[in-house]
Amino acid sequence: MKRNKLLEKIGFRYLVNLKSKEIHRVSFLKESCNLSVMVHAFYAPKLLVLILLRYGFNGCCHCYTSKNNES
Ligand SMILES: [Zn+2]
Questions:
Q1: What is the structure's pLDDT at 37?
Q2: Up-side HSE of residue 31: CA atoms within 13 Å toward CB?
Q3: What's the 61 CA to ligand 1 centre distance in angstroms?
Q4: 3 state DSSP class of 41
Q5: Structure confidence by residue, pLDDT tens digits, 10-37
């Protein structure tokens, strides 16, 4: 997918990958997050991200390490 600067500006600071169940933080995105190959992903605000993290989603090990349960 491509980044949407407008959505990021109005507070959607996270990218949720439905396929891998990983959540990325747009401010800390790395090459290794492979944004360009993500297909089933959408922008989400923090509140939704906090809920998803409780339901089996994981923080990305490159850009959201504080919520990554494998590191
Ligand atoms: Zn990431």
A1: 94
A2: 0
A3: 6
A4: strand
A5: 999 999 999 999 999 999 999 999 999 9
Domain count, the chain: 1
d(CA 69, CA 27): 20
Tokens of 53: 């993290």
Gap from CA of 31 to ligand 1 centroid (Å): 8
Q: Which domain holds residue 32?
A: 5-67
Please state the separation of Cα 19 from the chain's center in Å.
12
What are 46's two structure tokens? 């923090």
Parallel/antiparallel/unpaired status of strands 58-59 and 22-25: parallel
| Amino acid residing at 50 | L
DSSP letter at 16 equals E
